[in-house]
Design a protein that fits this description.
Order of helices and strands: HHHHHHEEH
Largest sheet: 2 strands, antiparallel
Radius of gyration: 18 Å
Number of domains: 1
Strand content: under 5%
Shape: globular
Structural class: mainly alpha
Helix content: over 70%
Number of strands: 2
Strand order of the largest sheet: 1-2
């Protein structure tokens, strides 16, 4: 299996191509729900983790810690993939305006595609790291991480954007507000 940074880099290339083909305005319609989801997970992640552990214990299964990590990691990954799927499918929250032409369209579509890839793929990597890479068939583990992969972990979305920025709130809140304001003002 390829190193984790190569795997997620390939996924970023796919999102880049999607952003390039869909265009800047439609890609921003995916960025907004993903930012809101990440803000929600950042704010209520501890409560969600505690609730999932209680639910597993209440179901009568005495799962070992690794099984709990696997279940929690898979639930977060499914939630992220579901949110991305819903955001990309059907009629999206496309921002109003005239689509750009030429190099501006290519550059902005590429950047928003990469941003969406960073949010989706980086968040999946974040949860895999948070729960100690419990999905064994992928063969990713903390011990197998290269120095480059270790250096990227602080820059994963919830590590980087979830840090307190201003007035004790994460950068995710301010980015959500900015995107929502841009959507409303048009």
């Amino acid at each position: 299996m390829a190193p984790i940074e190569a795997f997620f880099g390939a996924m970023l290339v796919i999102f880049w191509l999607i952003g390039l083909s869909r265009g800047f305005l439609r890609e921003l319609g995916v960025t907004l729900p993903m930012m809101f989801l990440l803000f929600f997970l950042d704010q209520f992640g501890q409560e969600l983790d505690a609730g999932m552990v209680k639910a597993m214990q209440a179901s009568g299964q005495q799962a070992v810690a690794s099984q709990q990590d696997l279940v929690q990691c898979c639930l977060y990954i499914v939630l992220l993939i579901f949110a991305a799927f819903v955001s990309y499918s059907g009629e999206t929250l496309a921002y109003g305006g005239t689509p750009l032409r030429g190099p501006q369209s290519i550059i902005l579509g590429s950047l928003t595609g990469l941003l969406n890839g960073y949010l989706v793929v980086g968040s999946i990597w974040y949860y895999m790291d948070k729960f100690n890479y419990p999905i064994e068939f992928l063969r990713f583990s903390t011990a197998n991480l290269s120095g480059f992969a270790r250096s990227l972990i602080p820059f994963l979305p919830l590590n980087f954007l979830g840090e307190p920025f201003l007035l004790g709130q994460s950068l995710l809140l301010y980015l959500c507000a900015l995107l929502l304001l841009a959507r409303v003002i048009r």
